[in-house]
Amino acid sequence: MLESQALAADKTGTTKVNDFVIRFANVNGTGSASANFLFTKAIFRMGVPVTPKNIFPSNIQGLPTWYEVRVNENGWLGRREGVDFMVCMNPQSMHQDVACVKPGGYFLYDSSKHLHDEFIREDITYFGIPLMDMSNAAFTDPRQRQLFKNVIYVGALSALLNIEFTALENVLQSQFKGKEKLISPNIKALQMGVDYVKEHFEFPLNMRVERRDLVKDSIMIDGNTACGIGAVYGGATVCAWYPITPSTSTPEAFNEYASKFRIDPITGKKNYAFVQAEDELSAIGMAIGAGWNGARSFTATSGPGVSLMNEFLGLAYFAEIPVVLIDIQRTGPSTGMPTRTQQSDVMEAAYASHGDTKHIVLFPSTPKECFDFTAESFDLAEQLQTPILLLSDLDLGMNDHMSEPLKWDDNRTFKRGKVLSAQDLEKIENFGRYLDVDGDGIPYRTYPGTHPTKGSYFTRGTSKNEYAKYTEDSDSYKKNMDRLLVKFNTAKEMVPAPHFYQDEKKSATAIVFYGTSIYAAEEAMHILQKQGMVMDAMRIKSFPFSKSVEEFVNSHDKIYVVEQNRDAQLRSLMMIEMGINPNKLIPVLNYNGMPITADDIISQIK
Amino acid sequence: MTFYKPSFRHPELPKNKLGYTSAEYEGVISTLCAGCGHDSISTAIVQACFELDIEPHKVAKLSGIGCSSKTPAYFLSNSHGFNSVHGRMPAVATGANLANKELLYIGVSGDGDSASIGMGQFVHVIRKNLNMVYICMNNGVYGLTKGQDSATADVGSISKAGSVNPYPPIDLASLAIELGASFVAQSFSGDKDQLIPLLKAAINHPGFAFLNVVSPCVTFNNNPGSTKSYQFAREHAACTGRADYVPVMDPITKSYGEGEVTTIELHDGSALQFHKLDNEWNPEDRLSAISALKRAEEKQEVLTGLLYINRNPKELHNILNTSDTPLNRLNEATLCPGNDILQDINEGFR
Questions:
Q1: Treating both helix axes as pointing N-terminal to C-terminal, what angle do A223-233 and A249-261 enclose, rounded to 10 degrees?
Q2: DSSP letter string over A243-269?
Q3: What is the pLDDT of residue B223?
Q4: Is A452's CB within 8 Å of B62's CB?
């Protein structure tokens, strides 16, 4: 009965070429990830822009997990609500999976078991394929039966959606490089899916993929991997870290690439140290110790880790020690939703630790920026002698994104900042570790062990004078605090500059966004523009705000500030740091743990 | 408290092989209470480094928070120092050591810093076998906050304010041995004849060296019932009636022979017993070291001397297999794989 329904596919009759959302509902721990990735990557290899999002539980095995793929040849790759095609492999979530399919959409399920009437909707088309029975018949190993069930549905989808079989083969070949014997059973499973569709359904559907040349030289990479590679290129030699979702894959990526490209060719020893600490306190403490001693060091964590690291961040701010902290934000507060995304550590990062503290914060939006900003953060940390906090998020960090390729200028040198050598010290009468020699608030430092009698200092989190001597003198304390503010102001023009979407002012209304909101915001701007709403736009890439940010804000009357948190945290920073009238900053917020959508932004602006 | 340090030195002060006098290993004037055991330990560190011909600038001094953690300012002024946050010296020392394996790392901590807030870090730095000298200046009391019990205070000991400590003490030395520390020694701040050789041995040890030094707090742990007290200050305190009175006195020094239980008589007639390890002691036997420590504890004695040593430890750099060149000396030529490799990496993501 259901199959005959499927033959009458495309109930709406509309054609959706390279513009749809497909969602896979799986049970976590069943090996669905690699099959789903195969599906996405094949579309990417057909030159069609595509973005996947993992919506996964904080669990290892047995709970529902979804993989949502948006195919969009116009390059709008933010999340979009509504599912055009549901692949449901999980009886646990079937009620909601049926419900979320848009009218006219499709529903593929494992018909090895009967689909109950309660799951039947008249306005969608069903594809029942006996995946488990097919897999059991074709494979003997229980694990393989489980895995290839997934690959069979990818094969079926390729026929239904017009995905080139050679693209799939192609992906398999690169996926199993060095493990070639795994390729043929995968191809066998794919072919089983294709054959089943050929025998039972009309295909391809009107909703389909067609080859394009839109991907060009883009890569598909997750932000955490890009951060890890960025740390290798940025010259990090000490990585101390503690496992926490969603940041763990950042240090792991660093270790993976460092273990390939940082091995001494003669001794086989490592030109880096990779240490799993006992907790986040220790992780950042190690990074700070290494930074003090002249190594480029970093740690990576998420919100709860940043909370724990607060005391140390204050120490590094006050003792002026370079360190890089990569925060892959997740949904807070407290443990929150560990596997959902948010931009809710903004205030935390900007003012981390007690007392008057302010930090440099960078907001990458794309994997390319994750790479660039991570590498650059080591320069900034050493130039400014202070912590640099790089705020990515789960969406950017753990999901693959289509990105510009990574690039490195081989003439680039590391900017090590104001470090005095033994020869420099010989020429200096009066070394003062916290002396503002150049008027930019940035003092000179020495590495331990530089000179037998000059340049040593005793750093500390307690108040000290310009010569690093302990003091409780009010004037000395205040002078030091004021110098730190001078340094903070110096940083404003050193951090990544904002991106403006227009050369000159076109409207008194503007939209401001940062981080992963870029995808939805750009799409929303495009839609609104088509509807006749012209707005100027600025993407902020860092804190503190540069003069150009301030000028932009001051030259507009009404500014929508798009954020993925409840409390409009960047808006608060704008109010606090630039003295902006709150009435002109209108928050546009999403904080449900899912990446923000263009529709969401539009509904809040209109 | 001394506030003036004479710049004039005897012109014929002995010099070590590097041509330095011991004065060149000193620090700034201590601001600790007169008679504080910690100052004796600082002096012992100066003497040990001088006698070992260590280049002062090749030492990094690190500490946490508390009276003990102030002391790195009071020795080795030509060394870089880092007074970090409470209980976190081990992490900072670990990072510093990873950055440059060629320096000598001396970490100073106290019983509050190590046995309470920093217990996690103490445990894990031992587990990592970081190549450093870790000195715990152990006085059983929170001095800088005026006399609260620490986690090494004996059960039943009475604080200056009169409260009785209801909890048993943590024995850092046996814990260190239990956790696999490769060098564990115990001493008394007033016994420089023992302390200096132990410090020298610790400095020369190629792995984690832990020195637990009983270092009485003359101001806040001098009450009857406190086994880490010098009760002789009591009359002075009573005489002024001020709880925070700082008595003026000289540090107590006492030497004793090997293999004997020595009672150090305090000014008021109370005593502290030290049991020295005898010549028969095998410091490479972990189990007997732990049982000897436990037996001493039952007898309310403090075992001093070298308790345990593993002479061929695998320290953290060996475990991690880091480069022979210190990491902080590597430049972009070594560290940055370059654009060609990056383009290959890109290719893997297409």
A1: 40
A2: --TTTTHHHHHHHHHHHHH-B-TTT--
A3: 67
A4: no
Q: How many domains does chain A contain in total?
A: 4
Q: Is the pLDDT of residue A358 over 80?
A: yes
Are the C-beta atoms of residues B309 and B183 closer than 8 Å to each other? yes
Residues A296 and A393 in one domain: yes
Residue B163: pLDDT band with limits 50, 70, 90: confident
- Do the Cβ atoms of B80 and A457 come within 8 Å? yes
Percent with pLDDT over 70 in chain A:
98
Residues 6+ apart with CB under 8 A from B223: B157, B158, B159, B160, B229, B231, B234
Asked whether residue A543 is domain-assigned, the answer is yes
Looking at beta carbons, which residues of chain A come within 8 Å of B101?
none
**Chain-chain contact of A410 with B339 (C-beta, under 8 angstroms):** yes
Q: What CATH code is carried by the domain that includes residue A248? A: 3.40.50.970
- Rounded to two decimals, the ipTM of the complex is 0.95
Whether A214 is covered by a domain: the verdict is no
Between chains, do A295 and B80 touch, taking CB under 8 Å as contact?
Answer: no
Residues A302-348: tens digit of each pLDDT: 999 999 999 999 999 999 999 999 999 999 999 999 999 999 999 99
Whole-prediction pTM: 0.93
- Mutation target among B63, B317, B328 for the A interface, most CBs of A within 10 A: B328
Same domain for A375 and A238 = yes
Chain B interface test: which of A237, A309, A320 (most B C-beta within 10 Å): A237
Does A564 share its domain with A532? yes
- In whole angstroms, give the CA distance from residue A82 to residue A277: 42
Angle between helices A142-160 and A165-175 (to 10 degrees): 140
pLDDT tens-digit profile of A199-254? 999 999 999 999 999 999 999 999 999 999 999 999 999 999 999 999 999 999 99
Residue pair B234/B241 in contact (Cβ under 8 Å)? The answer is no
Residues A268 and A338 in one domain: yes
Shortest distance, CA A452 to any CA of chain B (angstroms): 5
Residue A413 included in any domain? no
Instruction: Note whether B339 contacts A275, CB cutoff 8 Å.
Output: no
Q: Please report where in the chains the tokens 């000289």 appear, as a residue.
A: B250
Condensed to tens digits (0 to 9), the pLDDT of residues A441-474 reads 999 999 999 999 999 999 999 999 999 999 999 9
Amino acid letter, residue B263: T
Give B 2-31 residues with CB within 8 A of chain A.
28
Show which of A472, A496, A520 is a domain's final residue.
A496
Contact yes or no for B83 and A452 at CB 8 A: no
Q: How far is CA A255 from CA A238, A274, A312, in A?
A: 10, 7, 24
Together in a domain, A189 and A262: no
Asked if B250 reaches chain A (Cβ–Cβ under 8 Å), the answer is no
The domains of chain B, with CATH numbers, are 22-321 (3.40.50.970)
Instruction: Suggest the residue from B80, B97, B109 to mutate for an interface test with chain A (most A CBs closer than 10 A).
Output: B80
Q: Give the residue numbers spanning the domain of A333.
A: 221-403
